[in-house]
Design brief:
five-stranded mixed sheet, alpha+beta, 2 domains, elongated, 4 helices, 321 residues
């Protein structure tokens, strides 16, 4: 707006750029072209009314100046800062002109399409950090707890799927618990000198048998907890926790966690742990300085005494293998 006023004040006496011709000679071949033309014509109209009014004012033609600026102020969705500057000039011009008509008819160019109203873009608050500690978890302790935040008073950023690795090492899953966002893939990498066959019953997947150095990849496109088992080694149990929020973290062995990049707002908090029969849930208000959480998870759930094979049948733990 200041740039337009500066142009009006410093422009030479000859004003070819003040022509009122509409519509603008812009080609329209696509819907995007049409939208572009509509926006351009609205801005062109605003510019002409603004500067024509100032040119008439400087020439002492107050009736024309008042007519131009009153037309400008009547446009829907006019920028508030522009209206604030123009309105006093329009009122003074009208007072000086009285009810006199403009020296020439007020140009009334109209875009080919209705003006596009643009709502002011809401300024997002700076992202902050939510941190805290988890306690409980029974004999296993709080490590591996998955903490998620879901906003209840506004939108959240899109999730970013990733590719992660779960190794089979010393007949264990490493890490034992892995949290990923929906759409992520997990590579199951055999780092033992023996064969493995990773599977899950719900949702169902089966890597089949593969040997040392082998890899199998699975994509998880639905939220939920996936229990990992090995069809050869019944003692192997792990978890992939698939979350449907970009705000999540896993607690370390001491229970500490940190979630960065969180927008201030109202959130539902959930903490999942493999030894808890139910997640821990609570509400949280995240302010402009972030938030701190203290969560406790239960330890009332134990692994199955006879883990099922990939056909869903129970089996005893194989000792010494």
């Amino acid at each position: 707006m200041l740039l337009l006023l500066l142009l009006a004040a410093t422009a030479p006496a000859k004003h070819e750029w003040l022509g009122p011709e509409m519509p603008l000679p812009l080609s329209v071949r696509t819907p995007q072209d049409l939208e572009f033309k509509s926006v351009a014509e609205r801005q062109y109209l605003i510019f002409n009314l603004l500067v024509n009014g100032k040119t008439a004012w400087d020439a002492g033609d107050y009736a024309t100046a008042a007519a131009r600026w009153e037309s400008l102020l009547s446009l829907p969705g006019l920028d508030e800062d522009m209206a604030k500057v123009v309105k006093p000039f329009a009122e003074q011009a009208r007072a000086k002109a009285g009810n006199a008509a403009a020296a020439e008819p007020s140009p009334a160019p109209s875009p080919a399409q209705p003006p596009v109203e643009r709502k002011p873009r809401r300024r997002e608050a700076a992202a902050v950090t939510v941190e805290g500690t988890v306690s409980g978890g029974g004999a296993a302790g709080p490590g591996g707890a998955v903490v998620t935040l879901k906003r209840t008073d506004g939108p959240m950023p899109a999730m970013q799927p990733a590719k992660k690795v779960v190794a089979q090492k010393n007949k264990t899953f490493v890490p034992r618990v892995l949290a990923v966002s929906v759409g992520s893939s997990v590579v199951f990498r055999n780092e033992d000198a023996i064969n493995h066959n990773v599977f899950s019953l719900q949702p169902h997947f089966d890597t089949g048998l593969y040997g040392a150095g082998g890899e199998k990849e699975e994509t998880f496109d639905k939220p939920g907890v996936v229990q990992l088992l090995c069809n050869i080694h019944a003692s192997m149990i792990g978890y992939v926790v698939v979350v449907d929020t970009p705000y999540f973290a896993q607690a370390d062995a001491s229970g500490a966690f940190s979630i960065k990049g969180v927008q201030p707002g109202e959130y539902d908090v959930e903490a999942w742990h493999e030894n808890a029969s139910q997640p821990t849930r609570q509400k949280l208000t995240v302010g402009k300085d972030g938030a701190k959480l203290t969560l406790t998870v239960a330890g009332d759930k134990q692994p199955p005494a006879y883990p099922p094979d990939k056909y869903g049948k129970p089996r005893q733990t194989q000792l010494g293998y």
